Amino acid sequence: MSDAPQAYAGPERVFSGVQPSGSLHLGNYLGALKKFVDLQEDHDCVYCIVDLHAVTVWQDPADLAQQTRHIAAAFLASGVDPEKAIIYPQSRVAAHTELAWYFNCVARIGWLNRMTQFKDKAGKNSEKMSVGLYDYPVLQAADILAFKATHVPVGEDQKQHLELSRDIAAKFNNDFKAPGFFPLPEPLIKGPGARIMSLRDGTKKMSKSDPSDNSRINLTDSADVIAKKIRKAKTDAGVMPESKDELKDRPEVDNLVGIYAALSGQSAEEVLAEYSGQGFGVFKPALADLAVAKLQPITELMNRYLSDLDEIDRILSAGADAAANIANPIVADVRDVMGFWKG
Ligand code: TYM
Fold this sequence. Notes:
Helix content is 52%, strand content 6%.
């Protein structure tokens, strides 16, 4: 008989989350939203607006609900279809926080101490950060596993958090002698959009917290602003190279090629085959045209959705009920596995 732990035998499910803190940018779109749309066609998908994660840093109560609707509008405008996928706000499904507590008692402090995103966000001020920010990855594991999700589409920056989710799932299954109870969720990271970098510094990821708005393309930017930001994007004095190898020491050019590839659905090699030998005076306007063509329809649709908040609220409410119907029985089973009093 094999000693290998029994594998998870349940159905496949996709889960992912996006924080409602600030407006979404091209990195969020290419690293996450675009994949959400592709996956909904042939998978059971749950897409969560993670407002409980957002409040690990200060969020103005006057803005939080509207930011949540804003993300919902971005999901819908990108093509997430509420008839095919569940869209809902995390705070409306209590299973997240309940399972997070159980996982707090499974995860080890040493595991959390290794999380680089906390170190990056907290900097030298870690003593002054909320406990929630430190515990953030445990809640993320609970998000995924409250749905027994098997696949998680995310950008590369979430890789370490996904590894922690797998470790928590494995330790739970092992500690409670419940082999195969939780799946070990797999990140879906591959593709040219997985790590979009700042337009001002190709070694830093594109991020909503970057103080320079020129470092990112927001989903709310107008066509003119998108074109201006791409025109101003940092490059170098060279021309477009022939091969990907030659991009190694040119992070800004590498990034622009990656953005072009992700937006056009081509490989980086195909983009280089088309533009090698050309200067940025040719490539940048082509990239700007492509970015505007892909993003403007999304921005326009987003504004249309945001002009009908009742419809967004109806979708979020129905989504929360559907999500609770999946997660509540799973968390009830967790209580049984852990041996809590049932009455
Ligand atoms: P958040 O809200 O920071 O980002 C949402 C998604 O966008 C991706 N992303 C990027 N992808 C490529 N290039 C970039 N520059 C870039 N910046 C952001 C992120 O990887 C993410 O997929 N912890 C998560 C939210 C979360 C979650 C979850 C995700 C909470 N629970 C459960 C998956 C499953 C976060 O802060 O994402």
